[in-house]
Amino acid sequence: MRDVSIIGIGQTPVAEHWDRSLRHLAGDAVLAAMKDAGIETADALYVGNMLSGLLTGQEHLGALIADFVGLRGIEAVKVEAACGSGAAALRLGYMAVAGGMHDLVIVCGVEKMTDTVNSETTTGLVMAADADYESVHGLTFVAINALLMRRYMYEYGVRHEDFAYFTVNAHRNAAGNPQAMYRNPVTVEQFMRARMIADPINLLDSSGIGDGAAAVVLCPTSMAREYGHGRRVRIRASSMATDAVAVHDRRDPLWLSAVEASAFKAYQQAGVGPREIDLFELHDAFTIMAALSLEASGFAERGKGVWLARSGEISREGRIPICTMGGLKARGHPVGATGLYQVVEVVQQLRGEAGPNQIAHARLGMAQNIGGSGATAITHILEAQD
Amino acid sequence: MRDVSIIGIGQTPVAEHWDRSLRHLAGDAVLAAMKDAGIETADALYVGNMLSGLLTGQEHLGALIADFVGLRGIEAVKVEAACGSGAAALRLGYMAVAGGMHDLVIVCGVEKMTDTVNSETTTGLVMAADADYESVHGLTFVAINALLMRRYMYEYGVRHEDFAYFTVNAHRNAAGNPQAMYRNPVTVEQFMRARMIADPINLLDSSGIGDGAAAVVLCPTSMAREYGHGRRVRIRASSMATDAVAVHDRRDPLWLSAVEASAFKAYQQAGVGPREIDLFELHDAFTIMAALSLEASGFAERGKGVWLARSGEISREGRIPICTMGGLKARGHPVGATGLYQVVEVVQQLRGEAGPNQIAHARLGMAQNIGGSGATAITHILEAQD
Q1: How many helices, marked H, and strands, marked E, lie in chain A?
Q2: Distances (CA, A) of B99 to A98, B77, B91, B339
């Protein structure tokens, strides 16, 4: 199989884009990525999206977006894996290029969650959970995460306040990211005063939904020099794993098996371990997910994820910087687009384009996108390319 | 890239399965395909589905179905391309095996359209069209096809009765398929008396929606002998193309450019032409789509698709048998599953397992799945393998 490089990136701000429809957002990101890569055509388009059908009455996004960006006729398809849809689309785009099916591939993640016509976002998000055994009982998606968080606090003797440091870090980093939704700094005191959403998850434990799109252009590493500006990033690993969708079906609700499997397969493929990773864009849909992701990915012992945050090791100056551009919490979480935002941000870091948020000497970055409360996990490891 | 074979097939009857949920239907088809292939595990699962979110409140089908069939942990993702979702999933499964990413891949198409809780099927199906420029004006999916059919009749001087022969053929063939939904024969007289749905499309111009799932198991051709019973079928070509989603955006509404592009790319890949194809499972969601597909795929001149049907050349004894197990019209059209049903049926023909519907000496079969009113087209050419 061929090595694959990312030769272009594009993103819209995450915001309430009341003046931009889903196709406009996707178009903005894709055209920016194509411009960045210096290409005017492509062989295929893979679109990550979760909620367009329910919220905007539009499926069939592959053909729709391909046509809208001026690529009518090319192979184009939508990929869905709940909140992991974006990275799942990247995984398929990677496969298309690595396997030799296509040379120039665009991958886009897009979600339009505000100012929609058909339904409510809460109804949409719970489709990531098990409809027959979870949602049917009235559980919302945040409620499922609240159960996990409560159990974590009970099992490991952790207080709610201990989670605050994920939020403080995310908001600090978002301040330096012009695309981020919440650029205001947050203190531990503010975190503790935030209003409760689903006990113990409060407003500042929760990522904000939003509208947005992000995109990358892929090609074989051997051809990457022909395109763009020379700031290329190589995909050193790409892996996906799954778990039971319903939390009660898992052996251990506090251990994200799919995250572990996908992270360690990625380490193996790249020939590295957690110690070599310079930054980690993880899936902090809720603070509890950040803690569990750090543990299952090998950055903290079981039950110790929160302490990594509290000790400052997740900051830009720490041992393993996470959410370096704000993360889901503060950049915003347009669900089907998030996986691509994470990858775009890792590329910004590896190209030295992260502005005030630049991680010094970043060479290896990891992006991990999760579907549901851990049933799908997709991990990519990217490397700065000379 | 590697040659790819289909080593196992499975399907449920298409019906109103009020006692089977979406995961049960998918499970039945996948487990049948695994049994047929003689495998107990797989590397990845690709699920074609269009409507599960809107109709049953369940997304995230990759992880859900992988777990349900006993394959918890494997790579699994949902693929959506409107009514072309099934074949789009096959296309990605093919890519995974051909490119060397995986050796054993399961592809499943599933749709649960009756006895659902959340919404109406008509609302769901129109998500294949352009929400901002077609559905917003109140156009349903059948209405869009009715506009195409009316224009066809006007341009080519064709009467409504001339389309009857597609329906007569489909129902004749469904009679011999135990999995088909409508096994009753239909006469031209009955067709003409059927009640109007969206003028000029009547009930018997229209495929019936239903619940169902179909699945195949793929592996590299070089490994195919290790598995199953030796009745293998090789994928000689796989191709996907797109067009504008909104009909008014196309250069010529009566010419399916995506169908043409995907069919002729497939012919090129397989090194054959329409004359060498022994049977053609086409996308007869409405009779007009059957006519347009025959024309764009090179089996009939422009405006002459209906005459191919009227002259009997589409029958099992004719020049190009279509819908040999009932087609969308009479086998039934569980939209996201249809592309896989078509492929399973071609495999049945090529393995000599089509019972009373067996096409004599069938060696090369083509399956073509369409998304929307032609915006996505996926063509596969399969060959009996010694």
Answers
A1: 13, 11
A2: 7, 18, 12, 22
Distance CA A97, CA A238 (A): 12
**Mutate which: B54, B65, B77, B118, vs A, most A CBs within 10 A:** B77
Half-sphere exposure of B145 (CA within 13 A, CB side): 29
Q: Is the pTM of this model over 0.95?
A: yes
Q: Which residues pair with B46 in a beta bridge?
A: B77, B107
Q: In degrees to the nearest 10, what's the CA dihedral of B246, B249, B251, B254?
A: 30
Residue holding tokens 């199989």?
A1
Q: Compute the distance between CA of residue A340 and CA of residue A346 in angstroms, rounded to an integer.
A: 10
Q: Residue A363 in contact with residue A385, Cβ under 8 Å? A: no
Tokens of B115: 């006895």
Is residue A375 within 8 angstroms of chain B, CB to CB?
A: yes
CA distance A114 to chain B (A): 16
* CB pair distance less than 8 Å for B1 and A241: no
Question: What is the interface pTM, i.e. ipTM, of the complex?
Answer: 0.97
Classify residue A275 by its DSSP letter. G
Tokens describing residue B375: 């915006």
Of A126, A142, A145, nearest to A134 (Cα)? Answer: A126
- Domains observed in chain A: 4-120+209-233 (3.40.47.10), 125-207+236-384 (3.40.47.10)
CA distances from A176 to A29, A97, A172, A180 (A): 20, 33, 8, 8
pLDDT tens track for B267-284: 999 999 999 999 999 999
Per-residue pLDDT tens digits for B103-162 = 999 999 999 999 887 668 888 999 999 999 999 999 999 999 999 999 999 999 999 999
Residue A264 C-alpha, separation from nearest chain B C-alpha, in angstroms: 13
